[in-house]
Amino acid sequence: MAGKPFCQNGQDTEQAAQSGLGARAMAYGRLPLPADLNWLWVVGAVLCAVLALMVLTGLSLTLAYTPDATLAFGSVEGIERRLPAGWLLRAMHMTGASFFMLALYIHLLRGLYYRSYQPPRMGVWISGCVLLVMAMVTAFAGYVLPWGQMSYWGADVAGKAVGALPLIGGWLEGVFLGGDTPGTPTLHRMFALHFGLAFLIMAMVVGHITAVHARGSSSPSGRPITQTGALPFHPYFTVRDMLATVLVALGFVAVLCFWPDIIVESANYRPANPLHTPADIEPEWYFLPFYGMMQAVPFKLGGLLLSGGAVAVLFAVPWLDRAAGSLRPVPTMVKAGALFLLVVSAVATACAGLHHMQGGWLLVARLGMVGYYAYFVLYLPFCSRWQQGKTA
Ligand code: HEM
């Protein structure tokens, strides 16, 4: 549907700045967005809703949690069994973490597919990547807090991985663990990190959304807003965002009620035991692709660099694909096929991460890793050159 832009010459935004917060909100409500935005554009709003839930349930849980190696597991048991509705709060916080990471990955893949990282939205993309790293660190720190078997051994594995870094590794491991092995100082560090980062994430989200509003949304067709036509953010997209949030909330409640254990690692219901290493130490599902990559390399530093590089390479995406505004569009089959291979590679590496890294699984992990990196270092630059007519 075609239409005229709703904020002409930034007049609305100017008026809003002059007349306070309410008027500014009104101007945001009138923000013109491409008329062809599809349902994948609701995920940002869903992320905001889940983030709010995580902060609220997290603050409530904090009231009854004790970050001490001898008391942490018991305090979490107390929340589950004695605190009124404590089991529900904890279930919401744990399931919420998985929903948040799932939504984050979908949001990221949407950005990759529609190339939302291209100018003028490079800053939006980079702030998103920073958010991803912050969310990962927060999720990891949170997983250590209940001080179950996986919490303890997860902290141990991460500490040793950090320790493998040349020159500063030993020092960093000491800062991370607060001693030679995970213990109360580790819990204090993880608690401070988990709590503090939640607020930094909220501040960063405000910056991220402000950047989206300043730069304008990209569109599924890749055409400028003058060609797609514009619709105001409210009511067209606010209503869709709210409907999507309600639908996700229903799915969330269904998981809580019918499959409460679907994402819970049962070993973490056993208290941390430094004398008993579990047969399989595995992180939460959303870290598995990176864990698989870390395991697929025979020496620690290489594994650490390749799994860290898998996140770091996302920061470079706007520079790997520089064909902004090119007249030669990439065929949909090619774009969708490449993204599909990226997802399959990540899932394959994740599956390998769940198994002992030997024989067939080792091969799967290595192939998955090659597929993952190929998307970024081969497909994106090649596509970009092809679009600019630099290839035969
Ligand atoms: C806490 C995590 C995040 C929150 C709450 C969040 C929220 C949002 C919201 C509300 C929007 C506008 C609506 C939409 O396009 O869906 C948006 C847009 C965007 N986000 Fe995020 N985001 C997060 C993380 C990320 C990550 C990890 C990336 C990528 C690395 C990213 C990249 C983008 C981009 C490129 C856009 C602009 C899309 C367009 O062109 O319209 N975001 N985000």
TrEMBL record:
Component of the ubiquinol-cytochrome c reductase complex (complex III or cytochrome b-c1 complex), which is a respiratory chain that generates an electrochemical potential coupled to ATP synthesis. This is Cytochrome b. Binds 2 heme groups non-covalently. The chain crosses the membrane at residues 39-66, 87-110, 122-145, 157-179, 191-214, 242-263, 301-320, 332-355, 361-382. The main subunits of complex b-c1 are: cytochrome b, cytochrome c1 and the Rieske protein. Keywords: Electron transport, Heme, Iron, Membrane, Metal-binding, Respiratory chain, Transmembrane, Transmembrane helix, Transport. Gene3D superfamilies: Cytochrome Bc1 Complex, Chain C (1.20.810.10). Residues 223-392 form the Cytochrome b/b6 C-terminal region profile domain. One of its GO terms (biological process) is respiratory electron transport chain. Residues 7-221 form the Cytochrome b/b6 N-terminal region profile domain. One of its GO terms (molecular function) is oxidoreductase activity. Belongs to the cytochrome b family. Pfam families: Cytochrom_B_C (PF00032), Cytochrome_B (PF00033). PROSITE patterns: CYTB_CTER, CYTB_NTER. It is found in: Membrane. One of its GO terms (cellular component) is membrane.
